[in-house]
Amino acid sequence: MKLNYYGHSCFSVFAGGKHLLFDPFITPNELAKAVNIDEIAADYIFVSHGHFDHVFDVVQIAKRTGAMVLGNWEIYDWFNKQGLTNTHPINPGGKFSFDFGTVKCVTAVHSSSLPDGSYGGVASGYVFKTPDGNFYYSGDTGLTLDMQLIAKFAELDFAVLPIGDGLTMGVEDAIEAARYAGAKKVLGVHYDTFGFIKIDHEQAIRDFADAGLTLYLPGIGDTIDL
């Protein structure tokens, strides 16, 4: 599967013939200033929770592309009020099949509020089964034993996990999360964007390697095969 990284926790995966985009936060991100959001392809946009650094560019991209936007009930309702019409609710425990494959919404442990201060519902992650492979995006979360259930639903080709610490898991817990979920390959996200989540890239890669895992930290705008 081809994965494009757009900085912070925003990335897209081309799977099942569709472009799946996650948590678009690009325009305000100084590190992603070379990325033109009007060139990003999206057939589906998955939102893990309501914080501004995960939803900022959703409306603009969705209106341009016509992508279906998915999130928990509160996020679904909020985007409907922002004028989006191609939306779909999905809460933890829920599973739906689409033309790209199947997605299951799973638990994440994190706070959530929307940019206007309204309640953002519970934070979520997503597990995907597609004809091209399977993957797990945890969203912003702390380590939880629930991650052991991921492998019961899908045999993963890779996982996307936060590694910046402070507000989410750090490297140590992300390694354990990868083990729980059964992922040997991990894309690290949610790091470096703000001063309090900066990491040592080389050390993080070494720590994953010492655990028998591969950590990918692509440049913003880069495409990798996973």
TrEMBL record:
Domain of life: Bacteria
All residue ranges annotated as the Metallo-beta-lactamase domain in the record: 7-190
Keyword Hydrolase listed: yes
GO molecular function: hydrolase activity
InterPro entries: Metallo-B-lactamas (IPR001279), RibonucZ/Hydroxyglut_hydro (IPR036866), UPF0173_UPF0282_UlaG_hydrolase (IPR050114)
Keyword presence, Hydrolase: yes
Keywords: Hydrolase
Pfam families cross-referenced by the UniProt entry: Lactamase_B_2 (PF12706)
The protein, known as: Metal-dependent hydrolase
